[in-house]
Amino acid sequence: MQFAPVLRAEWLKIRTVRSLPGALFALFAATTAFSAIAGASDTSDPGFDPLFTALSGVAPGQIAAISFGAMAVSAEYHNGALRLSLAAVPRRGRWFAAKATAIAVPTLAVSLLTAPAALLVARAGLGEAAGGLTPAEQIRGVVGCAVYLTLMALFAAGLATLLRSGVATLSLLIPFILVVSFVIGDAAGTVADFLPDRAGQVVLYETHDGTLDPWPGLAVTALWTAAALVAGAWSLRRRDA
């Protein structure tokens, strides 16, 4: 079977599993809502960064992106669905590439709508405090935010394929991002700058004093994502459906 019909089949699965479009809606709603709240925050803090404040809704929004990626894969491990998928597409690499594409494209599309919406609602609250942001900085923040969210969805998809469980993936990633990453960051210094979430979020800052610049930081997250997808593909090839 050619790649295009496999991709259409995977996209149809995502459209018809009610929780998956719901996760994408939650991505938009959570990111914009929390960015709007952040826009009403105190701007007198010496560490205030207007771009990061405007896009800070990505912190809860990424949970929805991770959930989308993990659930899109874990649905295959319920009631023998993966056996049916691989019976229709025996070439496992092709099937997995179609699954990853079917996750990446809608996540990127929704994220490209979400990031500018979050920036606009937050800027309305920040007022003059965000007046110094240049168009280039805002474009970099919006595009970087969309790419980051897409990479995190794919990172979760790769781990879910490796672990063969959406629950295990979410139980590992969400506490790590919300708690462990910050604890390690406080204790490990510059090493923590290379964690997938911390590295990728550098692109959301107007100015950043860490080890990585914005695009190299996003590249580090892309490497983490690639490693997770390769591990997932290896597991899919080696283990029975």
Structure description:
With about 240 residues, the chain is mainly alpha-helical. It is about 75% helix and about 0% strand. It has helices at about 5-15, 20-40, 50-55, 60-75, 80-90, 90-125, 135-165, 165-190, 195-200, 215-240. The two termini are about 20 Å apart.
Brief write-up:
Helix 1 crosses helix 6 and helix 6 packs antiparallel against helix 10.
SSE topology sketch:
Blueprint: H1 3-16, H2 19-39, H3 50-54, H4 58-74, H5 81-88, H6 92-126, H7 135-163, H8 166-188, H9 196-200, H10 214-238
Helix pairs in contact: 1-6, 2-4, 2-6, 4-6, 4-7, 4-8, 6-7, 6-10, 7-8, 7-10
Low-confidence stretches: none
Report the principal-axis shape: elongated
Overall pLDDT score: 90
Classify the beta-strand content into a percent band. under 5%
Report the span from N to C terminus: 19 Å
Class per helix and strand makeup: mainly alpha
Can you count the beta strands?
0
Q: Number of helix segments?
A: 10
How can the largest sheet be summarized? none
What letter string, H or E per element, gives the SSE order? Answer: HHHHHHHHHH
Question: What Rg is obtained from the alpha carbons, in whole angstroms?
Answer: 18 Å
Helicity range of the residues? over 70%
